[in-house]
UniProtKB/TrEMBL annotation:
One of its GO terms (cellular component) is cytosol. One of its GO terms (molecular function) is identical protein binding. The lineage of its organism: Bacteria, Pseudomonadati, Pseudomonadota, Gammaproteobacteria, Oceanospirillales. It comes from the Bacteria. It comes from Endozoicomonas montiporae. Belongs to the bacterial histone-like protein family. PROSITE patterns: HISTONE_LIKE (PS00045). This is Transcriptional regulator HU subunit alpha. InterPro entries: Hist_DNA-bd, Histone-like_DNA-bd_CS, IHF-like_DNA-bd_dom_sf.
Length: 91
């Protein structure tokens, strides 16, 4: 499912116009992004938790030359599904 499909599904289920559903989805994405940027977690009970994780610097290998390279430390986003989501997917 792509973003336009998601907007259509939200509009149908919440009885909103597609424009309103698109604005609501964009607002949700913006709020989650801002919270993660500020190293906060976003928990949606029953659905899951979005959180920021740090990756340490490490030594990697260039697959073309086999030469060792340094990979810088970075932050990434993780999602831990909630119990209700896990149960729904496994039914």
């Amino acid at each position: 499912m792509r973003k336009p499909d998601l907007v259509n599904a939200i509009a149908d289920q919440a009885d909103l116009t597609k424009d309103e559903a698109g604005k609501a989805l964009n607002a949700l994405i913006d709020v989650i992004t801002k919270a993660l940027k500020e190293e906060d977690t976003v928990s949606l009970v029953g659905f899951g938790t979005f959180l920021q994780r740090s990756r340490a610097a490490r030594t990697g290998k260039n697959p073309q030359t086999g030469e060792a390279i340094q990979i810088a430390a970075s932050n990434t986003v993780a999602f831990k599904p909630g119990k209700a989501l896990k149960d729904a997917v496994n039914d």
